[in-house]
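debug: dumping io for the single-chain case to check the tokenizer round-trip. Nothing else runs in this session.
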Amino acid sequence: MMLKRDNYFYNTGVKFIRDPVHKADIILSPYEISIINTSEFQRLRGIKQLGPCEIVWHGATHNRFQHSIGTLFMVEQILSHADKHEKSIPLEKRIVCRLLGLLHDIGHIPFGHTIEDERPAISGRHTDRERIKALFDKSIGLALDDIEKLMDDPQKRNVGIGMRINKKRKINSLKDLLIELICECKGESDAVETKAPKVPDELQIYIDIVGNTVCADLFDYLRRDAYGTGLRRDYDDKIMFDFKIYNNRLVLDVFGNKAGRSGTRTEIVHLIDVRYTLAERVYFNATKMWAAAMISKAVEITQLSDIFLRDKRDDELLWLLEHPKLLQKLLNETPKTEGNRATFKGPNVDAIKECLGEGYERIWFDAWRKCKNEKPDFEGAAKLISSYKRRAIFRPIYLVTESSVDKDIKSLFRQHFWEYNSSLFRLSLELFLSRLCGIDPWEVIICCPDPPMNLKFANPLVGPFFSDDKRYKELSSINIMETNDPNVSLLVKGAEHVCQCHWQLWRFGVLAPESLSYDIKSKLAGLCQDTFRVSNELNEYISAHQNLQTIVESNITEAYRYINKKPPTKDEIRAIIGGSDKGRAGQPTPGAYFIEDYIDIISNMS
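debug: decoded output
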């Protein structure tokens, strides 16, 4: 059998879905409908595209089901302009592009970007091979097998079936091909710059069209997110006319005469600017980020796994987190997996000394040694989600923005408070701060976004450079000083300006409930100042009257009063502090901070 239009889009089975965002009828073949009707794909109806953004933008309730079908539609729009007469991309490859657009988000779990990227609380991502393979082993895989049966052997070879990825992996089926492609559609959360492709060059065109930089995924979610949030921002579809296929890559022809006449360079800068507007107003909105951190911490302190979340929807996850006993019962019935939990050897003492100064590594080290605790806190998670649902969103007590820190401190914060393997340290420091303030551990949340701030979208392949060996380049690699083309300046400078504005959105915060008393908030703010050694930008807590020293002295006084029924003198306080510091030369032991520590010390001194 040979794959043809009439046996893929046969009339009796074709369906049209009216899309309110693109204002168009999206044509779906019977085979695509069979994929959409699987339970694995239908689950995407319950996973919101923008996660907790509806806390701020009440219309932002669109889901990944809608986005996936919209991405398929935008694939067709790109193909119809970049390769009108199917000279570069024949029918069988176009169908693979459509399927990749339809399935590129199939691996998403509830609040996926929130708990995988923004404040990583679980291992794995929506493009992980094992996760995608598990989803394809059911009904979706059978539907893909039916499509593969339509192809003859030359068509199978042409799309990539039979190709070897490396010594260990070979593409043996359409299902294998799509797994490889989905895993390579990394999205914006993985890197600032486009990484070298891990798939063979012959397959890179699929990635470019669906999930690279300026691609079908971007075109759909920009328009859909703006529609859902009510922002009056959009791009002009005329940009599609300047797509070309060159050396099996999707490129934007932006420096030719036709591009100059049609305003393509201006439109690319506008497209990047639209993406920045959504980042500023929606994706990195402060309230949304704080709400997302609450959900992430709830998942983290219940130690939910990637496997447990794969078949869940947003509302199911929130409901389970609010019902601790049922959640514990379900977790006990879920197969345990090796290597699911993060591993952390301890804070990077040398980096802390270099960035914050000599002696300040002691607090970080002590927090890790005294408070590392992997016991799940189901009740704390329930309280977090209850607060989230009531829109009692935590607010920052301590806040640092991009302009306040250099790249070394941001790198230090990233290593200890953003990376998944550091989640254990993040939890231990949150526990340390909460115990010193006398509040519950779930009431302190450290929120540290990844400093690169997802800038992959600003790096398409552009050209042509007729005087250069490499005709098309990534936008970020273009050096204005090395080219004589005066048209380069507008595009490169415009993109650089947007990138600079985008980086300014980074902010590091320590969050707590607004319902806490001012004294406790002030105490927490003072502790954070001593812990992170960067000035607090929140004016109401700049002059916090308590810090680590005063809290320690207060704990000593309470411990002394507990044992001796009277307060200590200043000399006695100094003696107790001195006694607690003994034996810290060389590899230090955890210091004394809490009341129970000083009860032991005072008892021994007596």
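debug: round-trip ok. The first helix runs from residue 5 to 8.
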